[in-house]
TrEMBL record:
The keyword Coiled coil does not apply. SUPFAM superfamilies: POZ domain (SSF54695). The keyword Repeat applies. This is BTB domain-containing protein. It comes from Elysia crispata. CDD domains: BTB_POZ_ZBTB_KLHL-like (cd18186). PANTHER family: KELCH-LIKE PROTEIN 32, LD33804P. PROSITE patterns: BTB. It holds the Pfam family BTB.
Length: 588
């Protein structure tokens, strides 16, 4: 029996009794060896208990300080009632908090560095958060604890659509509102709600700033200066907040109505410039394939997902897409056996060109329509699809054909197309088209010869007038991929050379400069896009084990880093291009 007892362990519940003795010692002032003075009231305490509960007291009582020698500590910035509550919590482990003293106790515990008390307060705080008090709590906790502040913002974000009507946005500081509206997991029905919230915040703060100086001293000549400054600041802050919105998710009605016509937006050049930028991005869907400003990134709760779309199908009829949220490749089954099919993307719709037939995927294929070309360089330009081919007769010429307008596709039973004629007849003999990109109203067409390293660059304006043929040596005849940033284009070669292409002072010249060399040697490239201030390139990177890796390169005003993305498997002989796409999540 004795052996059985000795081989077992037992828990002995002494905690409650010990704390009851602590309270008795405190109340009866037994064994007290230090005095804390708050608002001229003396609190006899025990050094060991204070030091165990507070890093502040531990430092004060264990160093060679006056307080340690005299065993008398005076506190300032705390009321006697709050300190009494803290002592009751330390000695008795009692729940002595109320709604009235909760944040005062937290502030005192923070000042005295009472880690255990603060941890308990945070738990109580999180449990007390509700839609009725969250904004008020944010105002009280913002200076106490950054983690708790972020928890409140997360709470508001998770209940944003339900809270937006009663949300007291005027209590949020500009950095807090930006942090809230920039959340990728913001819970909302439509991006228009974000615009409405931002405008409501700006209006309330603008009116408040306009009224306060007059109320203080309406005859003070400095009041008007203060008023103008406050108005300017509130509108400038509005511009910063609006930059957190997701451009592509704003409805046309909200963009051109609620936002563009708002008095505060119309009164400020920065706001107007931003609205023009968003409108330009809305009006040019072809830009979505080649570059993506940070504010165009989609939210997790939207019906769209950001992926890099590989513009070629596998022989199994699968489209490969890289989900940028977790950097993983995913196969999207489009249709059956379709070798060498080409994939296009326009306004969240996937179009597939195969065997002279065009079909679209929403996410299922609709009946295809015949098209006259399946070879050549296919590009989306504004709202139309163009094909560029070379015709070798007596002299080589570039043929440019407009296949159709996306706005009318599949509506009238057949596709409308027209040839735009040839450009550059007899001027690029022995060369072939390798890429096309648009810069503003100008198309840049890259041609390359088979035996030399010269690349011919043709540029054509929107009236289909040839401006020039520009023989330029790009160091190597290796394959190049192109991408754009705002109103300039870039060409990246497989040898790592990055070239910048800009329009000159007029449309009769272009400027080409070599900006960077990203790597040494040749690497097989498939495409490049600008996404969220990063240059993302896809290729067969044999020396890379992970899906992606970061290169220590940046280009001021264009990208701050380079991400190399390894294809999940080889496509064979084909060299697919890539495009940025915002695909419906039900595809993934």
């Amino acid at each position: 029996m004795a052996d059985d007892i000795s081989s077992q362990s037992y828990e002995i519940g002494l905690t409650k009794n010990i704390f009851e003795e602590f309270i008795f010692f405190k109340d009866e002032k037994i064994f007290s060896d230090v005095v804390v003075v708050v608002e001229e009231v003396e609190f006899p305490c025990h050094r060991v208990i204070l030091a165990a509960a507070s890093d502040f007291f531990k430092a004060a009582l264990t160093t060679d300080m006056k307080e340690a020698k005299e065993r008398r500590i005076s506190l300032h910035g705390i009321t006697k009632d709050v300190f009494s509550t803290l002592l009751s919590s330390i000695y008795g482990n009692k729940n002595v908090l109320t709604d009235d003293n909760f944040f005062d106790v937290w502030a005192a515990a923070d000042m005295l560095r009472m880690r255990f008390i603060i941890a308990q307060l945070k738990e109580v705080f999180d449990s007390k958060l509700s839609s009725e008090n969250c904004v008020d709590y944010l105002a009280k906790v913002r200076l106490l604890d950054q983690t708790a502040k972020q928890n409140v913002l997360e709470f508001i974000g998770n209940h944003f659509s339900r809270l937006k009507v009663q949300l007291k946005v005027q209590l949020l500081k500009v950095d807090e509102l930006r942090s809230l509206l920039a959340m990728t997991n913001l819970n909302l029905y439509a991006e228009d709600e974000v615009i409405e919230c931002a405008l409501k915040w700006a209006k309330v703060n603008h009116i408040s700033a306009s009224q306060e100086p007059a109320e203080e001293n309406s005859s003070d000549p400095r009041a008007e200066t203060f008023l103008n400054g406050a108005r300017s600041d509130s509108v400038n802050d509005l511009t910063d907040i609006l930059e957190c919105t997701r451009y592509l998710l704003i409805s046309e009605g909200c963009l051109h109505g609620t936002l563009a016509m708002h008095p505060l937006v119309k009164s400020n050049p920065r706001c107007q410039s931003l609205v023009e930028k968003i409108s330009y991005y809305h009006a040019h869907p072809h830009l979505h394939q080649s570059w993506c400003p940070p504010a165009a990134v989609h939210r997790e709760r939207s019906n769209l997902a950001n992926v890099l779309l590989v513009c070629q199908l596998t022989n199994f009829g699968q489209l490969q897409a890289l989900d940028l949220r977790d950097m993983t490749w995913k196969d999207i089954l489009i249709i059956g056996h379709m070798p060498n099919a080409k994939v296009l993307y326009y306004k969240s719709i996937v179009y597939v060109l195969f065997n002279n037939q065009l079909s679209k995927y929403l996410p299922k294929f609709e009946v295809g329509q015949p098209v006259p070309f399946s070879e050549g360089i296919i590009r989306v330009s504004y709202d139309a699809l163009y094909v560029y081919t070379t015709d070798s007769g007596d002299s080589t010429q570039v043929l440019r054909t407009k296949l159709f307008n996306f706005s009318s596709i599949f509506n009238n039973g057949k596709l409308q197309y027209k040839s735009l004629g040839c450009i550059g007849e007899g001027m690029i003999d022995g060369k072939r088209i390798v890429n096309v990109i648009l810069i503003g109203p100008v198309e840049i067409i890259f041609c390359v010869g088979d035996e030399d390293s010269y690349t011919t660059i043709i540029w054509v304006n929107e009236q289909d007038k040839l401006h020039g043929i520009y023989p330029y040596q790009l160091v190597s005849s290796s394959r190049l991929v192109v991408f754009r940033h705002d109103k300039e284009a870039f060409a990246l070669q497989e040898n790592g050379c990055l070239w910048r292409i800009q329009l000159g002072d007029d449309l009769l010249q272009i400027n080409i400069t070599r900006e960077l060399v990203l790597w040494d040697g040749e690497k097989s490239l498939n495409g490049a896009v600008l996404y969220n201030d990063q240059l993302m390139i896809v290729g067969d990177f044999q020396d890379q084990s992970e899906v992606s890796t970061m290169l220590d390169h940046s280009l001021s005003g264009v990208f701050h880093s380079v991400v190399m993305i390894k294809r999940s498997y080889s496509y064979g002989d084909g060299c697919p291009d890539i495009a940025l796409a915002e695909l419906p999540k039900n595809i993934l």
